[in-house]
Write a sequence for this structure.
């Protein structure tokens, strides 16, 4: 154990004495999150939506009452939405023809909600809100979710009794406890910042593993191999340090996001930490796997740059997926960062997951396992 | 008592036989040297013995243990310095040695080793600020801190200036005096001759000679060497016609004449110089040394 702690201390000194490492892994994410926070908190405020893309939303109000009207108004207030009220058959026809990508059906039951809510809670029952959403518009679901629940909260002022029922039954998330903020629309910060955190975790995993490559090139790994130090202990220390830095990074990003730009914190820290851990595991193991294909630090850097750029731009963390051509949206489904960003949005801001929390979890775990096995098979100490 | 026993060791890299049926044994308390040109298989043999490289066939026992089967049992009882290996750049000299000391069961005191390799002034400097020679001394210190029964040194004095080299020789002899066995590889003939109790000359993965340095020299040379540095006489074919000379070897910067009869050779040489109209004024006479043995056995100079 003595050797373990000495190696841990030595590695920490090595990293924290290196200004470049600090820059990349702490300051860079801070700048990134601040930059995007500033850009997107401006874009999301009302009145600046003239140039934004519009998404057609069909709303069916079965009860035609005040509650449905309030919700419709809330949707109309979002600059990104172009809202049409339709009958159910009209709306579904348009959806089927692909004329609209999102249809929300507000059942008549909603109008008596203020009266029945208590009963529903006691009976542990929920009102289903059918939502039809094309897969390529799944991105909009977190906004839908937020608007519906906020409206509900304003009317009832108590826990949610509405449950979104997606027509594709991909997923939904209940028990949300969003604080929201004052914007008329959904909070795009809640979409962007968790994605940014996913991205910085990816960078940390990929570029952090260059260190192992550097140690190999400098024959330090070989020298350590000639001592009685068990190799597993060396790797354990490396991974522990990566996890530590990930947590610092996540904490910094979330705190800046929350206090500076109104990032919603919907879940407890332990749950968030679990996702940070999973993301770190995924990209650290992927980074290690890539280093086994590189002979020099330069080629290692090139591989990481390529992987990072591809994942950064094809994972939908920066832009609405509707801007991407269809084939790229297919590519996106094969990018692990897509699922980490999705999981992070769910874990931090409580957004409904686009692909399903279970899918996110399984994909990331699968990628981690694959990368670990490949790394163990290919890894060389010299 | 034998502390290292290697029998019929082989190691291939693809079609290249890096080590080809090599056998040697090292006794407790001796300084054993491996000499060989680059690519001769020295480092491969070295790394197999210290347990960081797998062998293809043959037997290796270090302190009675097979380093491939029980690497940790061997590694905790030996100290190793590797050629061209660096250490953590941002740590200080002292921190580095403390870290490595922590890996071994009975390490030596850090400050003692720092003083011994002459790094006392640099002990709080970061590794990245060390010169090549200082880095080299640190890497030898890493081997010494282990307090291992055998200290393995791969090219320990490479990159050192002559004074630092002699200082380090002193440390290596002290290791021997304190009862340790030293196994080293070297490019320096002088080093092998001065330090080593026995020397193995390796070429193409095989041992071509294994004796004490003096035995090697007397076994291969009863002759004296006469070295001609003068450019006018270099590559002169008539040198080969001198009757008292047994061998003429042209090297990069001088020509070596071997002779059992030095007086006769000098007379013949001055006659030749006179005939060619050259004033004979730049030649050296010396006894054969390990370098001559090496050259004779491998056909190459060790450092080219």
């Amino acid at each position: 154990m003595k050797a373990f702690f000495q190696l841990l201390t030595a590695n920490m000194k090595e990293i924290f004495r290196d200004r470049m490492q600090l820059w990349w892994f702490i300051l860079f994410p801070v700048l990134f999150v601040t930059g995007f926070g500033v850009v997107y908190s401006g874009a999301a405020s009302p009145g600046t939506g003239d140039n934004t893309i519009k998404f057609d939303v069909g709303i069916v109000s079965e009860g035609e009452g005040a509650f449905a009207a309030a919700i419709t108004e809330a949707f109309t207030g979002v600059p990104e939405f172009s809202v049409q009220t339709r009958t159910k058959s009209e709306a579904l026809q348009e959806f089927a023809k692909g004329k609209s990508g999102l249809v929300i059906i507000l059942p008549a039951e909603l109008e008596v909600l203020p009266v029945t809510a208590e009963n529903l809670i006691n009976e542990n029952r929920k009102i289903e809100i059918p939502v039809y959403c094309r897969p390529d518009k799944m991105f909009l679901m977190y906004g839908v979710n937020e608007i519906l629940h906020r409206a509900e909260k304003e009317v009832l002022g108590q826990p949610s009794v509405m449950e979104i029922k997606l027509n594709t039954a991909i997923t939904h998330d209940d028990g949300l406890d969003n604080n929201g903020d004052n914007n008329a629309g959904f909070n795009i910060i809640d979409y962007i910042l968790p994605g940014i955190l996913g991205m910085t975790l990816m960078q940390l995993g990929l570029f952090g593993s260059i260190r192992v490559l550097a140690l190999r090139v400098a024959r330090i790994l070989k020298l350590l191999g000639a001592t009685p130090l068990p190799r597993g202990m060396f790797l354990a220390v490396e991974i522990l340090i990566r996890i530590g830095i990930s947590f610092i990074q996540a904490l910094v990003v979330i705190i800046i996001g929350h206090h500076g730009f109104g990032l919603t914190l919907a879940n407890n820290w332990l749950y968030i930490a679990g996702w940070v851990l999973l993301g770190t595991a995924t990209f650290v193991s992927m980074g290690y796997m890539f280093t086994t294909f590189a002979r020099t630090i330069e080629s290692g850097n090139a591989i990481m740059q390529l992987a990072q750029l591809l994942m950064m731009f094809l994972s939908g963390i920066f832009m609405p997926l509707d801007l991407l051509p269809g084939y790229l949206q297919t590519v996106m489904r094969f990018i692990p960062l897509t699922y980490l960003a999705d999981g992070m949005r769910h874990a931090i801001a409580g957004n409904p997951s686009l692909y399903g929390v279970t899918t996110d979890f399984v994909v990331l775990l699968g990628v981690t396992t694959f990368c670990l096995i490949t790394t163990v098979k290919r890894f060389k100490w010299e | 008592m034998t502390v290292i026993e290697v029998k019929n060791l082989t190691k291939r890299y693809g079609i290249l036989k890096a080590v080809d049926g090599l056998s040697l044994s090292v006794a407790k308390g001796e300084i054993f040297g491996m000499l060989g040109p680059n690519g001769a298989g020295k480092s491969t043999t070295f790394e197999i013995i210290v347990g960081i490289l797998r062998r293809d066939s043959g037997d290796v026992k270090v302190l009675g243990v097979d380093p491939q089967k029980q690497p940790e049992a061997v590694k905790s009882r030996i100290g190793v310095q590797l050629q061209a290996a660096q250490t953590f750049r941002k740590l200080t000299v002292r921190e580095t040695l403390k870290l490595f000391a922590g890996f071994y069961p009975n390490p030596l005191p850090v400050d003692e080793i720092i003083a011994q390799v002459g790094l006392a002034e640099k002990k709080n400097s970061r590794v990245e600020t060390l010169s090549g020679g200082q880095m080299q001394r640190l890497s030898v210190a890493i081997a010494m801190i282990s307090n291992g029964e055998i200290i393995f040194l791969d090219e320990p004095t490479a990159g050192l200036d002559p004074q630092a080299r002699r200082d380090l020789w002193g440390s290596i002899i002290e290791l021997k005096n304190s009862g340790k066995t030293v196994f080293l590889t070297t490019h320096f003939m002088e080093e092998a001759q001065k330090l080593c109790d026995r020397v193995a000359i390796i070429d193409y993965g095989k041992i071509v000679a294994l004796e004490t340095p003096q035995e090697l020299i007397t076994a291969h040379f009863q002759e004296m060497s006469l070295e001609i540095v003068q450019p006018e006489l270099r590559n002169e074919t008539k040198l080969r016609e001198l009757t008292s000379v047994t061998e003429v070897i042209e090297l990069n910067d001088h020509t070596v004449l071997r002779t059992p009869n030095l007086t006769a050779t000098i007379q013949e040489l001055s006659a030749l110089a006179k005939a060619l109209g050259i004033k004979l004024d730049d030649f050296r006479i010396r006894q054969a040394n390990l370098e001559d043995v090496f050259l004779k056995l491998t056909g190459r100079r060790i450092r080219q």
In short: The radius of gyration of chain B is 22 Å.
